[in-house]
Write a sequence for this structure.
């Protein structure tokens, strides 16, 4: 999701969607009623509803079984200001076109998330004065469309702006607090090492603000990648970054990790086929990752000619495929239920009462019991003035904590 996406009015996605496993209920003018499970929002592929020859969402749903769409992108107005627009030009406040798409999807039992940011364009985190005003702008989007999920796409050039990222992360935290159950994901650029310097700074900003989204996703493409093995390697490395940044164990880090791919030919000429998607999907599900998505549904159809004359398109994939082949991997991910049970903790043993405290002057014979350093000890033979535990081969046998 790099320069091509900017040229096409699309941007790479840093996803901030507030997630959970329970359905939400909305009753607003947007037509939202019952939310999908969070697994669907985690699987929702990107769709530009106003640009890049938008496909018919209803047709995709019928052909693939897809239920959730990640609509892109909400930006600041091209002329400046702190109010949300689609692509910098169409004000959210007066929108009817995107609302119509959402209504169509919901009428068929589906739902949408909205992605903010992307590559290129001016982001609200850059133009709003602080986190609170940035959050207020995004709240307009949530309220208008009755959203249950939102995606923060934090990448170039915005993520090089410390103040803007502070506003975005702060806004995400506010939205998460003010919209209980909101599925929040943050997506950023991927590298072979997981993510680059600016991505790591974004994670540190989230840590400093005490913000934890449902997942942090990386986009392992447009960075010298070659097929699925290079992508799963990046996901493994990113997992290590999440562990070291937040102090999580490996499983917890995977439970907060996501993948955002690019189907077909990337902006830099990498190719990712259906087989690559299956390999990454297997990795994501076997590691219990939280998110699997891609850019984009607008591109999930075959070009004519198939290779698009060796160029990357915003409206087709440049690989041989049937329409909506890649959407079917999102459907597979949504259908694989992640673990929901919490491991049964090992019961804390009932503390043993401590025996009479050991005395350096007392004489003990085999079988006598004492306490020392919060442990009980039993004498193996006659002893006096020999400290319990001082020697592995000493006269005292450790009977455990007391």
């Amino acid at each position: 999701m790099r320069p091509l996406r900017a040229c096409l009015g699309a941007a790479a996605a840093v996803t901030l969607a507030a997630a959970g496993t329970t359905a939400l209920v909305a009753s607003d003018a947007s037509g939202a009623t019952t939310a999908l499970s969070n697994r669907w929002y985690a699987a929702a592929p990107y769709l530009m509803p106003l640009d890049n020859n938008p496909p018919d969402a209803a047709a995709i749903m019928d052909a693939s079984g897809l239920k959730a769409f990640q609509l892109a992108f909400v930006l600041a107005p091209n002329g400046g200001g702190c109010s949300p627009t689609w692509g910098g030009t169409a004000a959210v406040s007066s929108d009817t076109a995107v609302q119509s798409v959402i209504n169509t999807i919901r009428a068929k039992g589906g739902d949408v998330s909205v992605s903010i940011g992307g590559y290129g364009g001016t982001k609200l985190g850059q133009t709003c004065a602080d986190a609170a005003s940035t959050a207020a702008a995004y709240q307009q989007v949530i309220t208008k469309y009755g959203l249950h999920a939102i995606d923060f796409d934090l990448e170039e050039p915005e993520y090089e702006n410390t103040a803007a990222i502070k506003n975005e992360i702060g806004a995400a935290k506010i939205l998460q607090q003010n919209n209980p159950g909101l599925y929040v994901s943050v997506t950023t650029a991927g590298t072979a090492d997981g993510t680059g310097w600016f991505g790591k700074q974004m994670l540190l900003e989230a840590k400093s603000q005490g913000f934890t989204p449902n997942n942090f996703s990386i986009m392992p493409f447009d960075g010298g990648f070659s097929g699925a093995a290079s992508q799963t390697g990046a996901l493994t490395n990113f997992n290590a970054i999440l562990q070291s940044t937040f102090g999580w164990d490996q499983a917890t880090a995977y439970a907060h990790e996501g993948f955002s791919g690019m189907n077909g030919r990337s902006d830099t000429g990498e190719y990712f086929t259906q087989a690559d998607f299956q390999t990454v999907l297997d990795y994501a599900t076997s590691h219990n990752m939280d998110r699997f998505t891609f850019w984009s549904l607008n591109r999930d159809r075959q070009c004519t000619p198939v290779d698009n004359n060796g160029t990357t398109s915003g409206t087709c994939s440049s690989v041989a495929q049937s329409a909506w082949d890649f959407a079917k991997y999102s459907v597979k991910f949504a259908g694989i239920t992640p673990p929901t049970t919490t491991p049964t903790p090992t019961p804390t043993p009932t503390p043993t009462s401590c025996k009479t405290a050991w005395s350096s002057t007392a004489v003990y014979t085999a079988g006598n019991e004492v306490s020392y350093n919060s442990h009980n000890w039993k004498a193996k033979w006659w002893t006096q003035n020999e400290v319990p535990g001082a020697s592995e081969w000493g006269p005292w046998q450790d009977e455990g904590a007391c």
About this structure: The radius of gyration is 27 Å. The mean pLDDT is 89. The chain has twelve helices and 17 strands.
